[in-house]
Write a structure and sequence with these properties.
This protein is mainly α. It has two domains: 157 residues, Helix Hairpins; 54 residues, no CATH class. Helices cover 77% and strands 5% of the residues. It has four helices and four strands.
Length: 242
């Protein structure tokens, strides 16, 4: 194998590792944000449960005021009954008193239902509070781990970039330029092996002359179909070899 091909293969390996590290590093803030959102969702659920309790308490107080107002009406009607001497007015006032009592009874039924809802809402607050506390604890731990992972990945990435720079400087300029131009269009699969007569990149059959040239390893050979840089080693089979 040509020396330049060996150098390019090592460089390609570093580029693949760089690509992997960059992808992993890019996921860290995304995962961190997901954990923060999970914590916020738990907080929002707790806030919603507390609002529900407050709303029910407000409704209960409003009903208390309604009952008080009806009781005051009953007292006024009863006083008016004592003052009137007309049977018709007395019966009309009695009817109003019964109407108020019926309204109070209905309000009290609603209050009972509201109390049941209030108990359920309080239980929901307790449940949401426990969930929020657990989420906060988990998120804090996960975020700390993610932040540490991000720092470690960044450090590893910087070291790999420095190593990659040194490797690139050791490659002949023309070959490096060719390699990096292919990298921009093909990704980290630029220098590929030849096996059973086909290109290891596009998997298209190669002309016989190219196979001979690859085996000779006297100059850089490119695939006529995809342009990738080709190489051959003894453990690979050329066309017709088995």
């Amino acid at each position: 194998m040509m020396d330049v091909i060996e150098k390019l293969l090592i460089l390609q390996d570093r580029d693949r590792n760089l690509q992997r590290l960059e992808a992993e590093l890019a996921q860290v803030p995304i995962q961190r944000q997901a954990m923060v959102q999970k914590d916020q969702a738990a907080r929002d659920a707790l806030a919603a449960a507390k609002r529900r309790v407050t709303e029910l308490e407000s409704s209960r107080k409003q009903m208390d005021l309604e009952v008080q107002a009806k009781q005051e009406q009953i007292e006024r009607y009863a006083n008016q009954q004592l003052q009137t001497r007309k049977n018709e007015e007395y019966r009309a006032l009695a009817h109003e008193i019964e109407t108020c009592k019926a309204a109070i009874s209905q309000i009290e039924d609603r209050q009972i239902a509201l109390m049941e809802q209030g108990e359920a809402a309080q239980k929901e607050v307790q449940k949401a509070s426990a969930a929020a506390a657990a989420a906060a604890k988990l998120v804090e731990s996960e975020v700390t781990t993610l932040d540490e992972r991000g720092r470690n990945l960044q450090k590893e990435l910087e070291q790999l970039k420095a190593n990659r720079q040194a490797l690139a400087e050791a490659v002949e300029e023309g070959a490096l330029s060719r390699y990096e131009r292919l990298m921009r269009s093909k990704g980290c699969n630029v220098v590929v092996g030849v096996h059973k007569g086909v290109c290891g990149g596009c998997h298209m059959k190669l002309p016989a002359q190219q196979l001979v040239s690859c085996k000779a390893a006297e100059k850089i050979i490119s695939c006529t179909n995809c342009g990738r840089i080709l190489y051959y080693t003894r453990d690979m089979s050329l066309a017709g070899d088995d």
